[in-house]
Design a protein that fits this description.
The protein is built from nine helices and four strands; from the N terminus they run E-H-E-H-E-E-H-H-H-H-H-H-H. 33% of the residues are buried.
Length: 229
C-alpha cells in the first residue's frame, strides 16, 4: 500500500493520476495546505520542502522498511519503476520521457504557477510580473506544440510520465486565459488524454475540496503566499 499525501493542486494530481493509471494500491492522506498542515513535523519528516505531494511506500521492492519520496519528478520515476509502466523501455524513449518530465518541473509548472499567482491571486495587479510570466508560459506552450507536432505524446509514440506530469498544468489553461486554438497540437494531445478513464479518475480526486478564492481569507493568504495584512 502507498500513502499519498495530497491536496488538490496540479502537482497533487500528477501523482493521483499516475497511481490510477498504474493500478497501484494507495490511500489518500489529506493535507490542508491552507491551514498549514504541510508545516507539521510529521509531514516535514516525509517532505522536507513542506510541499505536497509526497508518498510513503509500505511495500518497497527490496522488501525493506517503508520508503518516503518527495518531489513529483522523483515520485513519478519511482512509481514508473515500481509499476513497470509509463517509462519507455528503449534508451531513446527513456531519455525523451525524462527530458520532458524535467522540462515540466523546471519550466511549465513553475511558470504557469507564477502566472496564475500574479493573474488570479496577487492582492494587487502588477502588470510587469503578469505579462512577463504570461509570455514565458506562451513560449513554453509553443515548445510543447512543436514537439507534439511530430509525435503523438511527449516522449514519442508512447504515453508516459512526461504526459502525466504536464496534463494537470495544461488543464488550467481556461483560468489562465490561454487559447488552445493557438496551439493545435497541444489541443489535440489534451483532448486525447482527457478520454483516458484512469486520468479522469485521478483528476477528479479532491475537486470538492478546492478553495478557488484563497485570496479572500487572510490566514490562508499568509500561509500560502506569505502575505501579511
Amino acid at each position: 500500500m502507498i500513502d499519498l499525501y495530497f491536496a488538490p493542486t496540479p502537482n497533487g494530481w500528477k501523482i493521483s493520476v499516475m497511481l490510477e493509471e498504474s493500478g497501484l494500491d494507495y490511500n489518500i492522506k489529506w493535507v490542508n495546505i491552507g491551514a498549514g498542515e504541510q508545516f507539521e513535523p510529521d509531514f516535514l519528516a516525509i517532505s522536507p520542502n513542506n510541499r505536497i505531494p509526497a508518498i510513503v511506500d509500505h511495500d518497497p521492492a527490496d522488501g525493506g522498511e517503508p520508503v518516503s519520496i518527495f518531489e513529483t519528478g522523483a515520485i513519478l520515476l519511482y512509481l514508473a519503476d515500481k509499476a513497470e509502466q509509463f517509462l519507455p523501455h528503449d534508451l531513446c524513449g527513456q531519455i525523451a520521457a525524462t527530458e520532458w518530465l524535467m522540462w515540466q518541473m523546471g519550466g511549465l509548472g513553475p511558470m504557469m504557477g507564477q502566472h496564475g499567482h500574479f493573474k488570479l491571486y496577487a492582492p494587487e495587479r502588477i502588470d510587469y510580473a503578469t505579462e512577463r510570466y504570461r509570455k514565458e508560459v506562451l513560449r513554453l506552450f509553443g515548445v510543447m506544440n512543436r514537439r507534439l507536432g511530430g509525435h503523438e505524446y511527449l516522449a514519442g509514440e508512447e504515453y508516459s510520465i512526461a504526459d502525466i506530469a504536464c496534463f494537470p498544468w495544461v488543464q488550467t489553461y481556461k483560468r489562465q486565459e490561454i487559447d488552445l486554438v493557438d496551439f493545435p497540437h497541444v489541443q489535440r494531445w489534451y483532448e486525447t488524454l482527457k478520454q483516458r478513464e484512469a486520468l479522469r479518475r485521478g483528476m477528479a480526486i479532491g475537486r470538492d475540496k478546492i478553495n478557488r478564492n484563497p485570496q479572500d481569507d487572510a490566514q490562508v493568504r499568509k500561509t500560502l503566499f506569505g502575505l501579511e495584512e
